[in-house]
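Page 37, continued from 36.
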């Protein structure tokens, strides 16, 4: 939730105002679960009435400004007593079990176990008004079925599988601790602290917590930076919004200030940081429409597949890894990133020019023919990625015809990501086409058919 938003241009702001004027909203403040939530946080010292829960046609539920918010004005100030932290957990009935357990639990796991146990208590839980408004399920990769995993972009799929396996490992490796909690549960522990329950709690903490650094605890292992913030976590992310967010030791509250202000009855947003949509999907389970930070990632495996005829490819890839140039290679709607273009220029060089490889990574230009080869190779990359995107979208359309609602929600998020990817790659191809030299005696495709070691020209 920290960080500043991207400052939009005049055209972007006009489009945003037009979009905002078409958004419909319905107040949720009179629904029983939100009445209970507001009573819960007011009893703990929250007094503001500036924001109210509402449903918006473009984002779902969020918070609506009841009055105009001026630039720099305090948007929300949530007392520490409203925050759910590891201190809450250690001071609860779970405290004696966590404090005596070896090896020490992580702060994240302590919060997850507390959420599961409190949800199990139902209305008897002190935290029921908050837990009752948490999502029942999530569209994070930890929830993705194998079919959904299969239609993710390759760069996302690997990290999505890692996330799902990580949550599975957290559950399986802590079953002994879960069993020691049987005395405080009125059902068998295997029916309460299930993998599905832990997954729900893990996603709740990871997608909804605010950053709040806390002193290390003797009873926990690892960095303690998570705090769940009831009501405040209803604020949605938008990449062009600027806010300041931090815990004030003066007021004892977690505070958010609006930088640009908000019009009355408009939705109040925050900014999670300058994240592209792949990262937003992985960490929060959604994508942001019109995200200026969005890119498409290029794996070195794809580069190797396209250039598999280059006899010195293995040596070049090793050189790129040694110099930290084998990752974060991206494509945007404005063209290839500097890192990707630099990598392509190096790949364009023959082995005989090995002494120049380092200089190219530092920004040295290559000859015109090598530059054109790099651009044409970039086009081939984009075309291959675009083909993969079209195939994935066809598979998604087929799956949407035969799936149930939870899978449909997952597929809808991935579909939006893939559609954005299609737009980015199409725009990039147009940019690269404009950069290509007009063909004379040799066509651009013939440049690509010549591997770098076919000629020793620099």
């Amino acid at each position: 939730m920290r960080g500043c938003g991207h400052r939009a241009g005049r055209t972007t702001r006009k489009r945003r105002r037009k979009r905002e004027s078409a958004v419909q909203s319905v107040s949720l403040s009179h629904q029983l679960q939100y009445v209970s939530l507001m009573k819960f946080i007011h009893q703990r010292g929250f007094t503001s009435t500036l924001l109210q829960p509402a449903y918006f046609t473009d984002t779902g539920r969020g918070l609506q400004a009841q009055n105009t918010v001026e630039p720099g004005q305090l948007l929300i100030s949530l007392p520490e007593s409203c925050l759910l932290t590891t201190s809450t957990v250690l001071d609860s009935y779970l405290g004696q079990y966590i404090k005596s357990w070896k090896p020490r639990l992580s702060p994240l796991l302590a919060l997850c176990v507390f959420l599961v146990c409190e949800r199990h208590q139902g209305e008897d839980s002190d935290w029921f008004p908050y837990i009752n408004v948490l999502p029942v399920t999530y569209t994070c990769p930890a929830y993705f079925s194998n079919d959904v995993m299969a239609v993710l972009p390759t760069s996302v799929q690997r990290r999505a599988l890692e996330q799902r396996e990580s949550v599975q490992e957290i559950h399986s490796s802590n079953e002994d601790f879960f069993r020691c909690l049987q005395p405080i549960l009125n059902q068998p522990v295997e029916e309460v602290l299930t993998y599905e329950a832990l997954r729900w709690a893990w996603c709740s903490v990871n997608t909804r917590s605010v950053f709040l650094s806390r002193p290390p605890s003797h009873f926990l292992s690892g960095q303690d930076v998570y705090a769940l913030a009831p009501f405040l976590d209803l604020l949605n992310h938008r990449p062009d919004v600027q806010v300041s967010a931090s815990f004030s030791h003066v007021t004892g509250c977690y505070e958010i200030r609006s930088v640009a202000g908000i019009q009355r009855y408009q939705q109040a947003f925050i900014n999670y940081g300058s994240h592209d949509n792949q990262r937003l999907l992985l960490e929060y389970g959604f994508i942001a429409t019109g995200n200026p930070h969005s890119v498409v990632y290029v794996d070195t495996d794809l580069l190797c597949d396209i250039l598999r005829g280059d006899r010195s490819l293995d040596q070049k890839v090793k050189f790129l890894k040694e110099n930290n140039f084998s990752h974060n290679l991206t494509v945007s709607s404005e063209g290839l990133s500097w890192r990707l273009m630099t990598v392509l220029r190096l790949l364009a060089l023959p082995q005989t020019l090995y002494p120049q490889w380092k200089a190219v990574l530092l920004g040295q230009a290559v000859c015109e023919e090598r530059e054109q080869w790099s651009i044409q190779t970039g086009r081939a990359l984009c075309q291959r990625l675009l083909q993969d995107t079209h195939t994935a979208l066809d598979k998604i359309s087929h799956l949407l015809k035969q799936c149930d609602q939870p899978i449909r929600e997952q597929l809808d998020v991935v579909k939006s990501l893939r559609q954005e990817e299609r737009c980015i790659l199409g725009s990039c191809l147009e940019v690269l086409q404009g950069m290509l030299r007009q063909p004379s005696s040799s066509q651009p495709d013939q440049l690509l058919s010549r591997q770098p070691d076919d000629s020793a020209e620099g």
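The chain has a mean pLDDT of 92. Flag for discussion at group meeting. The CA atoms of residues 234 and 384 lie 39 Å apart.
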